[in-house]
Write a structure and sequence with these properties.
With 243 residues, the chain is mainly alpha-helical. Helices cover 77% and strands 0% of the residues.
Length: 243
């Protein structure tokens, strides 16, 4: 139970309290529950879409997106903003890129990237809700967090001493592979939408990992958060284009 609560506390703004400082092994095992947290977030959004179903579709999309950001505490948006600033301002230099990521301030590139991503999410949600397609509300949060299992399973962590270090050092690799296979099978069982969402996730994951390894030699918490946001956005847009 503790690993799930660790994942829930870290990935959401839900009021979760732990009894004490978790052991590194429990932190590593918490990664196994990231997809479950994503599914929980998706279920909340899915139920929310029915609760506000009488409102105009653009308003539904805006309310769901606002709830989505609130439920996650904008944690991953912050990672995307830091990564965007660092990727441009780092000029291809590893140490400069890592240094910029640690700067809490956001530059114009971060603002532009966040606005574009939220705009794409909003319009994609609008399109999907107009067609009565709520499945994307489950798939996007689920796959956005599932992709992190593959990232930490295959990619070195570049910030020694952080939470990500505990994840990679104490990651139950065999169980992670089992969870990924379950997610894979689940998406395939959903038919065309599940296949498309899975394909988009894999493409974005591979390209993002390659960029991280070339620039940094691995991943950081910020780049992991950026990957999550890119996958969520990519899945929503791809499914909206399919409508």
């Amino acid at each position: 139970m503790q690993p799930f609560l660790i994942a829930l506390q870290f990935l959401t703004s839900l009021p979760v309290r732990l009894s004490g400082m978790p052991a590194p092994q429990a932190v590593g095992r918490s990664l196994l529950h990231y997809p479950l947290v994503g599914l929980l977030l998706g279920a909340i959004l899915w139920l929310g879409s029915f609760a506000i179903g009488g409102a105009a579709v653009p308003l539904q999309a805006a309310l769901l997106l606002a709830a989505w950001v609130a439920l996650t505490g904008a944690l991953h948006l912050d990672g995307l903003a830091d990564s965007a600033d660092a990727w441009l301002g780092g000029f291809g230099d590893r140490e400069r890129t890592l240094a910029i990521m640690k700067d809490p301030r956001s530059g114009p590139i971060a603002v532009v990237v966040l606005v574009l991503l939220l705009l794409l999410k909003f319009v994609a949600l609008w399109t999907l809700l107009a067609q009565g397609d709520q499945l994307a509300l489950l798939l996007a949060p689920l796959l956005g967090r599932s992709v992190l299992l593959g990232l930490f399973l295959t990619t070195p962590y570049m910030r020694p001493g952080g939470l990500g270090q505990a994840l990679t050092d104490h990651l139950p690799r065999g169980q992670v592979r089992v969870v990924l296979m379950v997610i894979f099978a689940f998406c395939l069982a959903l038919g065309a939408s599940g296949w498309l969402a899975l394909l988009v996730t894999m493409v974005i994951g591979v390209l993002a990992r390659r960029a991280m390894c070339r620039r940094l030699g691995g991943t950081t918490g910020d780049t992991a958060g950026a990957l999550l946001e890119l996958v969520e956005c990519g899945v929503l847009v791809a499914l909206a284009l399919q409508v």
